[in-house]
Design a protein that fits this description.
This protein has five helices and two strands. By secondary structure, the protein is mainly alpha-helical. The protein has a domain at 6-76. Bound molecules: zinc ion (ZN).
Amino acid sequence: MFKLADNHLEAAQKIAATNRKKKSCGDCYDRGWIGLTEQNLLVLCTRCVDMEKAMADWKEYVSGHEDLKEHFAELFEEKESAEDSAQESEKHARQELKQTKTVVKPNFAPGVKRTGHSKKI
Ligand SMILES: [Zn+2]
């Protein structure tokens, strides 16, 4: 089973900490994350971490590490086809007239708990 290497985990912890929006948080004790999954992935604190920014940073980090890219390929795939807002997918559909692929909603984000309210882009 995939397990995130410790050095990558440290990077993820840094990302979590730098994307916090609140000063103090009783949920994560100001770390920005509240636990680890069995894959050694961070469970980010949804109360004080800016999820979108954190994921963007994480994506960037992953894209710089070949050993992570494979496991997190979904991060990059969902970019074109999936948006939380239906309007956005409509826009995409119009832009990609020739492509008629179905828009699949992401239900999996490694290391992150999806919350109900993602911001619309
Ligand atoms: Zn927190």
